[in-house]
Design brief:
- It is a single chain.
- The protein is of the alpha/beta class.
- The chain folds into two domains: 7-197, no CATH class; 201-281, no CATH class.
- The chain has helices at 20-27, 52-59, 96-102, 108-124, 146-156, 209-213, 244-248, 251-262; strands spanning 38-40, 64-68, 86-90, 131-138, 161-163, 166-168, 179-184, 216-217, 222-224, 237-238.
- The protein has a five-stranded parallel sheet, with helices on one face.
- α1 (20-27) packs parallel to α2 (52-59).
- The longest helix is centred in the middle third of the chain and has 17 residues, at 108-124.
- It is globular.
- The chain starts with 19 loop residues before the first helix and ends in a 19-residue tail after the last helix.
Length: 281
């Protein structure tokens, strides 16, 4: 299966799963209540990882977001959905036929089944099931479907927000889908690959949130500068060899963040010409 403009097919880095013991080592550096959250995404489908259930159990005490196209739907009745706070489902379509064109190899039936399942679970256990969001990537295959997508989900989804122990508006029952969004396509450091008629990149550049607020861990343990460095060419360290906190406070990492704060980039960094810096974490 593949997503539009995915760099995975041309990736030179070895394709492998993040080892469970490596995640355990990484998670062990932090405690519940620390200012840290986790995003399960990146070069592939998180639900295809053979240890994804154990990974979610391991991270259950932290805020967790999973980004998925539901290529595989967990069948175990005790799958730990409760461990995730948000699940973003990438559809890029509103109907089965269009989905088959823009997401070849992905499974529309899984999305339908999951949303039906989510409706039941959210009704029965509103605070023990993740908030669900639906996203569409804007590119030349989807330009004509954006308004129908927004109109449909505007009718279906009622924003209900959960913050800490409170849900508001408190008198509204939880819907299976809480939010929906249209995303700009990413170039992944490949200038000229942008296809949409609308460029989402803001005109005025500012420091990148990925650089200042996040650390991207690849499956080989490399900690690289951002999720768009899919080859790990600009890795700051490796959690096989160092603790994440050591890598984060290393001279190389601090220098990298200072470059973003000052908006002055070394020639060997792709940041100066990057068009993906505005994407949310």
């Amino acid at each position: 299966a593949s997503c539009f403009n995915c760099p995975h097919d041309g990736m030179k880095r070895a394709r492998k799963y993040l080892p469970l013991d490596l995640l355990n080592k990484l998670a062990g550096e932090y405690a519940a209540g620390d200012d840290v959250s986790w995003v399960l995404s990146g070069m592939g489908e998180p639900l295809l990882h053979p240890e994804i259930a154990n990974m979610l159990h391991m991270l259950a005490k932290f805020p967790v977001t999973m980004q998925t196209s539901l290529q595989k739907l967990p069948e175990a009745p005790d799958f730990p959905w409760f461990a995730a706070d948000h699940v973003r489902i990438s559809t890029d379509a509103l109907a089965r036929d269009d989905f088959a064109k823009v997401r070849p190899g992905c499974n529309w039936e899984n999305i339908e089944k999951f949303l039906a399942f989510a409706r039941e679970r959210k009704r029965a256990f509103p605070d023990q099931f993740p908030e669900i969001g639906i996203s569409m990537l804007r590119h030349f295959h989807t330009e004509n479907h954006l308004q129908p997508f927004l109109r449909y989900w505007k009718q279906v989804a009622r924003p209900v927000f959960r913050e800490n122990f409170f849900r508001w508006p408190f008198d509204m029952p939880a819907e299976p889908v809480q939010w929906y969004q249209v995303l700009g396509e990413a170039e992944y450091g490949r200038p000229g690959s942008h296809t949409s008629m609308v460029d989402f990149t803001p005109v005025k550049r500012r420091p990148c949130r990925h650089a200042l607020l996040s650390a991207t861990v690849l499956s080989d343990g490399s900690v690289t500068i951002c999720p768009y460095d899919f080859e790990g060419a600009h890795a700051l360290g490796n959690i096989h060899e160092q603790a994440m906190k050591q890598i984060w406070s290393s001279p190389a990492a601090e220098s990298f963040r200072q470059q973003h704060l000052q908006m002055k980039f070394a020639e060997n960094l792709p940041c100066s010409s990057c068009r993906d810096w505005y994407h949310p974490l």
